[in-house]
Amino acid sequence: MSEPVRLPAVPAPLTWWNTPAYHVVEGPDRLVVGAGPNTDVFGDPGGPTRTANAPALLAALDGEFTLGARVEPDFRATYDAGVLFLYVDEDNHAKLCLELSPQGRPTIVSVVTRGGVSDDCNSFTVDGGGVRLRITRTGGAYAFHADTGDGFWHLVRYFALDGSPRAGFLAQSPLGEGQTVRFSEITHTTTPPEDLRGGK
């Protein structure tokens, strides 16, 4: 077990699942994570390929919460991504990603993995290399949102995930030689949005 990482914006100690190439805590609400080459968390629904080696820094957050951050990947190769991550165990987890598409466009992508089998949903492309993302737990459900710069929190996904997942930050480089993701403006609240589809 790695030594806990303290990030003042998150009200619980964070620990690593998979070791990063490097990491730096920059002040109370900023984190830099380096992903090594060929790192991902994905179980291909169409075949036997399964990867679970991307570094994730995770905290056990009690009750209802919203965890948000501005996510800025380096985007050196296709499918490089900065991710807000929910992790139950190696077979059950969920990702909200800012990911580089095969067309070379930053794209909001969500992935939910159950029993080791992932789905993969591309939602929309965005301009620029940084976007605010957030994860909300309300009751027994989870919501993924993205703010593309227009001040509206777009609902990306609303779903259930069995177990008690830890939440945090992940960097991946499935086809590349590694990359750096910067997480800034990290926030945690215990009050979920009143209307998950209302944009606030």
UniProtKB/TrEMBL annotation:
Name of this protein: DUF1349 domain-containing protein
Domain of life: Bacteria
Pfam families, sorted: DUF1349
